[in-house]
Amino acid sequence: MPWIQIKLNATNENAEQIGDMLMEETGALSVTFLDAHDTPVFEPLPGETRLWGDTDIVALYDAEADTKLILAQITASNMLAEGFAHKVEQLEDKDWEREWMENFHPMKFGERLWICPSWRDVPEPDAVNVMLDPGLAFGTGTHPTTALCLEWLESLDLAGKTVIDFGCGSGILAIAAIKLGAAKVIGIDIDPQALTASKDNAERNGVADQLELFLPQNQPEGLIADVVVANILAGPLRDLSDIIKGLVKDGGQLAMSGVLDTQAEDVANYYRDEMTIDPIVELNEWCRISGKK
Questions:
Q1: At which positions is S-adenosyl-L-methionine bound (predicted)?
Q2: Which site from 84, 165, 169, 251 is most exposed, i.e. has the minimal number of CB atoms within 10 Å?
């Protein structure tokens, strides 16, 4: 069955609202968001307004849909400027599940760490390979904040160390830490669904026996670690700074992300009283703050 695809160019301020309108008012069967580099946006941060740069919106319709009517409805919504940029294409029938899967490729972080979807061949069998599929919770490695944390973990000597993944999401950082040599990793998250995802992914990677998972209210008292990583958001990193610093043992290391470049210095200042802060690292407007206690 053929389809019609309408691609609109939007901004970070109106993309989500336009997507909702296309679904609710024009009868779009699906809506996909693409970033400025034509890469599908798979990882909106949990609980945060999506911060895209230039964003393309791709809406899929039945081949019998009246495109003139759809474009008139979009115009009438007043969400886009008059003469808005758009493109209408006819698509042949495809195996859409396979098409979606094609967007995910093995990704390398640092010198030896790979994150690989289960349906792809492992590029370097002798490297450190984490098998992780997009699914239940935030974190598959495609977002800059996840990439920054993975690269930092890969740069450390984790042999025999205890690591805390504060806000563990899918478990990607926790599992990577184990595969990189950590003796024990503790994942903490406020979302029970994230703990389920972390547990399932750890089992797929054969490291479940080295991963302990807790809701904050259930974590052991006096919990400390050699290495702490927190890929969450700027607000919680500020609000929970005393708690996060308390998880790092003296001489231990901390890395934080989920922070925009405009927020990084302010967040870092909440940690300077107990931490020696490294130069802040930026990737696509997102930052990693790291340091030693």
A1: 146, 167, 189, 231
A2: 251
Is 55 assigned a ligand-binding role in the annotation? no
Q: Which residues contact 216 (CB under 8 A, 6 or more apart)?
A: 188, 190
**Band (226; pLDDT cuts 50, 70, 90):** very high
Q: Which segment of 88-92, 93-97, 199-203, 206-210 scores lowest on mean pLDDT?
A: 93-97
β-strand pairing of 55-62 with 3-10: antiparallel
Rounded to a whole number of angstroms, the distance between the first and last alpha carbons of the chain is 60
User: Cα(8)–Cα(4) distance, rounded to whole angstroms?
Assistant: 13
Q: Is 209 annotated as a binding residue?
A: no
Distance (Å, rounded) from C-alpha 3 to C-alpha 89? 8
Distances (CA, A) of 227 to 148, 199, 248: 15, 20, 7
- 84 in helix, strand or coil? coil
* 39 known ligand binder: no
Neighbours of 199 (CB within 10 A): 16
pTM: 0.64
